[in-house]
Structures are given as C-alpha cells and as structure tokens.
Amino acid sequence: MRYAYGLVFLLMSLMAAPVLAQDSLPYVELTDCWMELPDGLTEGQDVDCGYLFVPEDRTADDSPTIQLAYAIYYAPGDSAQPDPVIYLAGGPGGNAVGELEGWLDTAYMQDRNLILLDQRGTGYSQPSLNCVEADAGEDDATQACHDRLVDEGVNLQAYNSAENAADVADLRVALGIEEWNVYGVSYGTRLALTIMRDYPEGVRSVIIDSVYPPEVSSWEEYGENTADVFSRLFAACADNADCNDAYPDLETLFFDTVEQLNAEPALYTGTDADTGEETDQELTGDALIDRLFQVLYSSESIPSVPWVINEIANGNYIALDELESGSTGMEKLRQDEDVSDSEGMNLSVECQEEIAFLDLDTALDNVPDPGSALHNNSILSIEGAFNDCTIWGVTPADDIETQPVESDIPTLVVSGEFDPITPAKWAEGAASYLPNSYFFAFPGGGHGVIDMNECSAGIMQAFLDDPTQEPDASCIADIGEPDWTLP
After folding, report:
1. Does position 274 have pLDDT exceeding 90, yes or no?
2. Sign of CA dihedral 434, 437, 443, 447
3. Exposed (0-12), middle (13-18) or buried (19+): which is 44, by Cβ within 10 Å?
4. Facing residues of 442 across strands?
5. What does the CA dihedral 395, 401, 403, 408 come to, rounded to 10 degrees?
6. For the chain, which domains are there?
7. Burial class for 321, CB neighbours closer than 10 Å (0-12, 13-18, 19+)
8. CB within 8 A of 346, min separation 6: which ones?
C-alpha cells in the first residue's frame, strides 16, 4: 500500500475517516481490492483500493450515503509525475475498476499513477444499478429492474452526469490530489465535459476519446449514423483493389444475407460471446446486424468484417463467433458478469439527459432507406429505447445537459473513422467549443482509439507531457487504410 499524495491523504486514511463517516461527506476509506490483480504488475508496483462516500442526492439534506469503488495503480518505481490520470468509463454504466489487464503496457502508466473509478451505480460501487433481470433474459426485465431498485430505496433520478461529475471532483479532493488529468471514453467523455463545465478546479488536461457530447440528439440520429457507418465500411472495401476483388459488391452480399437469415434463421453450434462456452445458437439477420455493429467498436476487428460477411453468406456461421472472441473491444465488454455494465445507470442517464429531450417520431422519420433490413433494425432499437424510458420514469434533467460545453482547459479530442456509435462529427463539433483543444481522427479506427496503435498512444503521451502544445500527429498520415482480411 502506498500513500503517494502526501500528508493530507495519509492523515485522512489513517485518522480522519471514522470521524468523517459520522459527521460529514465526502470521505474515503481504503479496503481490500475486490478483483484479482493481473500478473503483469511490475515487481514492487502497488495498487490501492477504496471507497469514496458521498450523498446519493446532493440536493436533499437527508440523502442516503452511497459508496463508490476506486482503485489506484501506482506507476512503477518512485518517479511518478505529480499529476495522475483518472479514467472515466463509458456506457453509461460501464465498469472501470475491473478493467485492469489492458492498462499495464500503456506508456502513460510508466510515469503517472492511474485512478479507476466505478461511477455511481456501476461496477463494485454500492448500490449497484445492474439489472440482473436483463442479465437473466427475463421478460419485462426493465420493469422488473425498476420496481426492485425503487423497492430497495434507490433514487433513480440521482444517477446522472451532474452528480457523477460532483463525485469525481470530490474524489480528487478526498485523495489530496492537487491536479490531475481526466481521460474519458464514450459516455466518459460526456462526464469529462460535465466536469470541465461544473468542476474545472484541479483539472490539468482532458482527453476525450469517441466523444458523446451533451448537445447531440443521439437517438434522433441513430438510424442515419448506423446506415452511414455500414456504408463507409462497404465503400472502403470497394475502394481497395484487393478487398474489392475478394468481396465484390459486398454491400449487396450483406443485405441479401441479412434478408435470407431473417427469413430462415441459421441454427449452429458456436461459442457464446459472454461465457466462451460451446452452445447451440440461432443467427437471424437482425442479430447479424447487431453483432457486426458491436464488432465495429474494435479497431483490430474492423479489417475482418468483409471476410466474416462472406463467410456467413457461405454458411460458416462460427466465423462471427471467432471474430468476436478475438475482438479487443468485445473483451472489454465481457468482464465479470456481476459488474460488467449497469443497465439501470444507463437508463437513468439516457432517459433524463437524452430521450427526455427527443421526439420519437422524428427519430423514426430520420432512419434512411425505408423497407431495408437495416432500416427495420434501427426502428426496433429506437422504439425499444423510448419504451424503456417510459418504464424507467425519471424526469428531464436541467436544460444545461443539452448544451455544448465551453472550456479553456487543454483538451485532446480523438475519434475513429468507423466508430458505429459516436461518429467523428460529434467529436469535431465538441472540439469547436474548446479553444485549447486538438482534434484528430484516426483512419480505420473504431470506438476508443487512443491506444489503437503506437501513433495514437504517442500522441496521447506527448499531450500529457505538455498539454499546452499541439502534439506532433504526422504519424496519422502513415496509418493508411485497413489491412483487410482476405480469403
């Protein structure tokens, strides 16, 4: 156990917590780590785990106290920079503390301590808004989860970006950290932007990757963005001589295969993406769309998507299982089933900050290509999201949660060419309100691109070294197009 943040943290950890537990919030308490620590830790590298105690609802004097799990991974040796990195996971509802293995080889962990926080309602934090009913595949899972959490006394309205941002700000102060760097991916970027707006104190720099800014109308754009990412994928293959020779007219092949599988689903013995176990599976056309959409999150897997479409069209259905099992992005989604994601936290945030301000008819009308399989799939997704929010029953957030964030804090803004859920236009738009920002789009990238290769990781490291200077991004020109998987 290492106390790296000076006398304030040491005294708080050893002496003050019992008093603060009775008299005031927030405070931190160290505890045994919940998760198995990875084998790759450098000898002598320390990890601290703890809870941050905060009010569930800061607007209520009699609010219950909740506890948020955090972990600190100390840089090896004694040469850590004084400003650590705090990572904000996506979702909303993603787990951060359980994401351990992938951090060990990152350049910025060699000279900076890394802090992982399970946001309120997620991961090892308590209460958990994980919907076990959805995990179990229950009918009416959203209603059952809602009713259970309400019966348990959870205030669903209090799980939102504003409270989340206050939690992060409280953690910095409670740990005695003078200044840190905020790094968010996906929904974590919206949370980072909220911190920049509401609690800029102590934020040295911000990195937002695959940006989900508050000003977008996400579900009203969902159908258009989904169609666009598939179109860009097909066009990229067609523009490459080798890919086009191997998979001529890939777009037609894809839609014909989807239509055929919707008419006659394929039954096969494959590998369950969540458990890794062999199991009987059914593949419909809509399921193929959904699964490929998820595969596009992973930059490593994108070059194999044309190959998988061709394999499935020729009856090799297990090829999709194999691609999913080797996908970095999918591995990040398949953590311990008890903490991997919190559907309830997702609904609380999305329903009060997004869907409450959107129009269902507009969202449906914006879906392109009426009658196509992709159109119908998007319709189902949109209707499902709006229906779930009707059940969840939270009220709209303050209007400020729909406005762009303006800030002078130095910010690195990055996106991927084939990101299926947070398109590059969102990142570029957010950057336009941040005068001290640097925006870069990575060719061939999916969702979460800052560590996709040496180029992107180097840009992040250069930015952390000096956020006031634009990092050298000339290496992006050398990335080129995807190295398509050929038969």
Report:
1. no
2. negative
3. exposed
4. 416
5. 170
6. 6-216+403-478 (3.40.50.1820)
7. buried
8. 91, 92, 93
- For residue 362, give both structure tokens: 């507009």
Residue type at 163? E
SS (H, E, C) the chain: CCCCCHHHHHHHHHHHHHHHHHHCCCEEEEECCCCCCCCCCCCCCCEEEEEEEEECCCCCCCCCEEEEEEEEECCCCCCCCCCCEEEECCCCCECCCCCCHHHCCCHHHCCCCEEEECCCECCCCECECCCHHHHCCCCCHHHHHHHHHHHCCCCHHHCCHHHHHHHHHHHHHHCCCCCEEEEEEEHHHHHHHHHHHHCCCCEEEEEEEEECCCCCCHHHHHHHHHHHHHHHHHHHHHHCHHHHHHCCCHHHHHHHHHHHHHHCCEEEEEECCCCCCEEEEEECHHHHHHHHHHHCCCCCCHHHHHHHHHHHHCCCCHHHHHHHHCCHHHHHHCCCCCCCECHHHHHHHHHHHCHHHCCHHHHHHCCCCCCCHHHHHHHHHHHHHHHHHHHHCCCCCCHHHHCCCCCCCCEEEEEECCCCCCCHHHHHHHHCCCCCEEEEEECCCCCCCCCCCHHHHHHHHHHHHCCCCCCCCHHHHHCCCCCCCCC
Tokens coding 132: 């076990």
The residues, ordered by sequence, that sit 6+ positions from 54 with a Cβ below 8 Å of its Cβ are 25, 26, 65, 66, 67, 68, 120, 166, 167, 170
Which pLDDT tens digit goes with each residue over 83-135?
A: 999 999 999 999 999 876 678 778 777 889 999 999 999 999 999 999 999 98
Confidence band, pLDDT 50/70/90 cuts, at residue 38: confident
Confidence of residue 180 (pLDDT cuts 50, 70, 90): very high
pTM of the model: 0.92
CA nearest neighbour of 92 among 162, 19, 10: 162
User: CB under 8 Å to 461, separation ≥6 — which residues?
Assistant: 107, 108
Nearest CA to 287 out of 295, 275, 297 is that of 295
Q: By the 8 A CB rule, do 350 and 381 touch? A: no
Quote the tokens at residue 242: 């080798």
d(CA 14, CA 27): 12
Neighbours of 197 (CB within 10 A): 19
Peptide bond into 92 cis (omega under 30): yes
